[in-house]
């Protein structure tokens, strides 16, 4: 029985160990660590504690890569089988739901943990550079490992619930939003109870203890505490002799302190939460995958019912004059109803964040009109971040449907050029960004309306848009999106996190970055500012054309193979 359950898991792990792509990805991450080490060594003469800076960069880089992986890698564990209509074949082969979940999701979790573990020997070099300790590094990797367990199983639950990878990725983003919002809410509730008291002493004490524990369960809070200088100092628990000198650090008190340091509320809650989500996925697996029908899953979006009768009309309507735009707008971007629902949810999140900041920083009940500017500022930041993430997700999926369904060769046989097909598909995905762009405009308009001097706000906005640094940042975003689309044709999974890692380190030696830095301080010289903007625009166009040529060539090769 055990062999039958673990059969798919063992096969997945053997394939992962034998294939060259996963090993190259791990090697590339080690090379990225090497470049981070070189950067820390170069900065050693200008900044103190270069080892601590190196460790901080690696820790936060891992945190961001894990976030991107949770959206794109873990959330497609089961949906890829649904989209390829092979989930029924796995069940017919006698593989139990637990075996499917272990083989499709736990194998990815183990691969991610291996990628995290191979970094530890290289990160230990931070101790040699100075500023970091062994306990600090181990605590960071234990915290990140626990967060991976939670995020992988959250993606697994989304993959079991949803029929498509894009919808599962969006649901995983929702779980992540709840994960980072609840500790903030718990911190506020705990502070309010401490200041005002509770209805009864016992209930108030229990509530404070619960909210304090929940407030410490966020990886962001725990990682911020770990990467600070002085973390893991056990000088208060090391016994000393008569002269006050430490006897030995290898004693039970120190190891007990180390164990308490590793068994933090964040580690315990994340591991238990991951096991709980895995159990929920196991219980719901049969019920949510029993009626999957071949050929229908890959063609419906979140609002399409499982069974469409003769009297029912498809919610996506009739195809447009350009079917490529229509198809990608509905089946990758989600269509108008999903876009509207998503914008409403994000506005609600922005309002809740504003309410939390307002109640925390101002007297209770003092929510005047002047605070609307803060609300629109928070909303603007959320929408700018959201449009970057949306564009990256669309880029990673723009060609995945054709590759998974093996319809790329038939698509290329149509009397249309590759350029027309690709740009039409890109325009269909770009239509999915229109609601977010409208929300950005509304948030900016709200800032202008709430400003004390709207004319000064308009002038400041114009000055920001004429800064070369802003256009340099836009160039890096465009390069990032094109890089994701290019890697999606070479890699089955992981194009988004790999592109982020490359941009994180590659931007430090990219000529565009140096141009942005050279012209970022230009304010009083309009000619120099205009030259910096034009250089960034030309670099953006040229780099995009290079990526588009690579994409067209790769599509030719893939189309001839399918």
Plain-language structure description:
The protein has 562 residues and is mostly helical. It has a domain at 1-300. Helix content is 74%, strand content 0%. Helix 6 (97-117) packs antiparallel against helix 9 (134-161), helix 9 (134-161) runs antiparallel to helix 12 and helix 25 runs antiparallel to helix 26 (526-561). The longest helix is centred in the C-terminal third of the chain and has 36 residues, at 526-561.
Can I get a quick summary?
This protein is mainly alpha-helical. Helix content is 74%, strand content 0%. It has helices spanning 2-18, 20-42, 50-72, 79-83, 87-92, 97-117, 120-123, 125-129, 134-161, 165-196, 201-215, 219-226, 252-262, 265-289, 323-331, 335-361, 372-397, 400-405, 408-412, 418-431, 434-450, 454-465, 468-487, 495-506, 511-519, 526-561.
Average pLDDT, all residues:
75
The helix/strand class is mainly alpha
Give helix and strand order, one letter per element, not per position: HHHHHHHHHHHHHHHHHHHHHHHHHH
Quaternary structure: single chain
* Strand residue content: under 5%
The biggest beta sheet reads: none
Tally of extended strands? 0
In angstroms, what separates the terminal alpha carbons? 38 Å
Per the principal axes of the C-alpha atoms, what is the gross shape?
A: globular
- Kindly provide the radius of gyration, computed on alpha-carbon positions and rounded to a whole number of angstroms: 26 Å
Helix content, binned percent: over 70%
Number of helices: 26
pLDDT below 50 for ≥5 consecutive residues: which ranges? Answer: 294-312, 363-370
